[in-house]
């Protein structure tokens, strides 16, 4: 949760009498989500992750190179890759 502060007046350093707060409004900030598609086991797998965690998706792709994931659905592949994060 974030706050938006509404003020009026002129700053003292600019020759005014100072800034006065006239309102504080709460608002929600959504995560910065992006779709990241990687090829694992010969299939494209899409993840929706925050930009701060995109590097983790590529780490998972590297760790999955030795795994036998062929013949699995995208949902099953995702489940196996996400299980790697817990280890």
TrEMBL record:
Superkingdom field: Bacteria
Keywords linked to the UniProt accession: Ribonucleoprotein, Ribosomal protein
Biased composition (Basic residues): 1-13
Location of region: Disordered: 1-21
This protein's GO CC annotations: ribosome
Name under which the protein is recorded: Large subunit ribosomal protein L28
């Amino acid at each position: 949760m974030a706050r938006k502060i509404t003020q009026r007046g002129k700053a003292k350093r600019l020759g005014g009498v100072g800034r006065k707060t006239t309102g504080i409004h709460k608002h929600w900030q959504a995560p910065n989500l992006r779709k990241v598609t990687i090829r694992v086991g010969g299939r494209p797998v899409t993840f929706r992750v925050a930009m701060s965690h995109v590097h983790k998706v590529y780490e998972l792709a590297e760790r999955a190179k030795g795994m036998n994931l062929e013949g699995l659905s995208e949902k099953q592949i995702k489940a196996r890759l996400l299980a790697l994060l817990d280890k």
